[in-house]
Structure formats: C-alpha cells, structure tokens
Amino acid sequence: MADLTAIVLTKNEQQNIRACIESVQGFAARVVVVDSGSTDDTVEIAKSLGADVYEHEFSYYAAQFNWGIAHTGIETEWILRLDADERFTPALCRECEALLKGADAAGQNGIAMEADFYFLGRLMKHGLANKRKIMIFRRGHGQIEDRKRDAHTVLFDGGYAEARGRFLHDDFKDLNSYIARYNWYTIRELQDYLAFKNGASTEANTEKRLQKHRKRKFSFYYRAPRFLRCFLWFCYNYYFRLGFLDGREGYIYHWLECYWYRFLVDAKIVEQEKTGAEPAELKAFGS
Predict the structure, then answer these.
(1) Residues in contact with 235: Cβ distance below 8 Å, sequence separation at least 6, in sequence order
(2) I need a surface site. Which of 8, 72, 92, 115 has the fewest CB within 10 A?
(3) Using one digit for the tens of pLDDT, what is the confidence trace for 259-279?
(4) If DSSP codes are grouped into helix, strand and coil, which group holds residue 192?
(5) What phi and psi values does residue 131 have, to the nearest 5 degrees?
(6) E-strand stretches of 84-193
C-alpha cells in the first residue's frame, strides 16, 4: 500500500462511486470524498467502503479540490486526484507504487498517465481520445491550478514520471447528464476565455503535452473565426485523426465534444459581448 490519499469530488455519483473507490483499495492508504450536496446514495456508499466523507459547497473544480487538500487532514506523502468516473486497474496500482518508491532518487514529484476513455460503453481509440494528466503529486509540491475550466495538476518544483499503464475513464451515467454537465462547463470555459482576453496567463508547470495543447488553444484556436473553428476542430479530430474508426459512438462523441460544445462556447461569447453581463451561473451539474 502506498503512502497516498485519493481525493474524489462527488455530487450524485452513486452509479460511479463504488467502482471508483474499490479500484484503489489496497493502493491508497486513505480515500477522501468531498461531496457537494448529493441527494442520492453517494455518501452512504462511500462511507460503507471506508472513505472519509466531507461536505463542502461547490463553486468550481480547482477550488473544491484544493479545499480538500487543505481541510481534510491529509498527512500522506502523496495525493491522487481521481474523478468519480475514473478507475485504476490492479496493474496500474502496482506500477504507480513502484514509481513512487523511486521518485526521490529521480527528483520526481508527480506521475502522469493516460486514460482508456469509454463513451456510451465503447473504448475510444482515435481522434480526441487521448486524455493525459498528472494524476499523482507529492503533498506540498503541487495542487490543481486555479482555473474555472480545464484545470490541470501543477507542480511547484521537480519533474514527473510517466506511467505506461492507463487508468479507466468510464462514466456510467446517461447522455442527459453529459449534456447538462457540458452546458455547465461552457460557463466555466467562457470565464477562462474572458480572463485570457484580460491578460491572465495560460502557462502552467504541468504535463508537457497538455502545455502544448493549451498553447495551441489560446494562440491559434481562439484566433480563428468563431463558429467555423468548432467545425474545423470536429473535422480534424473525426476525419484526420481517424475518429470515424470508433463507429457511431465515435461520431456522437466527436460531434458533441468537438463541435456542439465548442459551438455553444462561441455562442455564449457572442452573447456576453452583446450584453456585457457577467456569465450567468447554472446550478452545478447533478442537481
């Protein structure tokens, strides 16, 4: 067992939370669940599996996770950020445990890894399927960057190891939940876009490919014509990066993720510019 605490943020995650927690039992010394008002059985399930559950009102992901770091009595050397719809495999647990043992000698304060991402029950292998991030970081040497959307793990110092194994990202909830969540995300995306327009930095000491992706997003994508750019982003991932090879699930995923979501962000940018109003808040998804 690693000297590690897994932090999981939840709201109405009864369909996912059991598999999530069970996947790190025997690897994480402690599991902390920070819940923001679940009305289903999320809290009861988490407690039954030995997790320490804390209640805290949700504003945005980074603030909630960093609150969890600061206010849940974490004493382990390492912290794992784990979403309720993510799971570790036994092989990945073993690999990470070995990487943590060698981290001091290598001057590493984190571990990055990639996901096997499932959509509508199908493993996405092409297009915009690769989701990579620093999942584990040393306490006191990292946190979640303070952004409203697309917030990555940042390291204050040191490097990171790269795990060869993959974690599983498989949300058991339906498309209604997906659409509601992504509509909520558009507000956070708009807030980050407005911050960028007002001079906020987009740089972060995080996984190298994520840094490159963000640089392209703010230096190229947001300079392209509105509404056309989301269509071109869809075409790039679906056709040129072979997303069509993932069948109808791949088509639905790429249309929603690359076109619909980005189109909605552009529409809200236009709305904000016309009205000058602050982005309207929605209830957090899962309400």
Answers:
(1) none
(2) 72
(3) 999 999 999 999 999 998 877
(4) helix
(5) -115, 110
(6) 86-87, 108-119, 122-123, 132-138, 142-144, 153-155, 159-170
pLDDT at res. 130: 75
Q: Which two tokens stand for residue 189?
A: 């995306």
Instruction: Report the predicted TM-score, pTM, of the whole model to 2 decimal places.
Output: 0.93
The rounded distance, in Å, linking the Cα atoms of 15 and 12 is: 8
Distance CA 238, CA 80 (A): 32
Q: What sign does the CA torsion over 283, 173, 250, 247 have?
A: negative
Helix (H, G, I), strand (E, B) or coil at 285: coil
Alpha-carbon distance of 72 to 82, in angstroms, equals 16
CA distance 255 to 235: 9
Beta bridge partners of 116: 168
Q: Encoding tokens for residue 22?
A: 């069970």
Structure tokens at 106: 């290598």
User: Among residues 214, 208, 217, which one has the least CA distance to residue 262?
Assistant: 217
Alpha carbons 43 and 41: distance in angstroms, whole number:
6
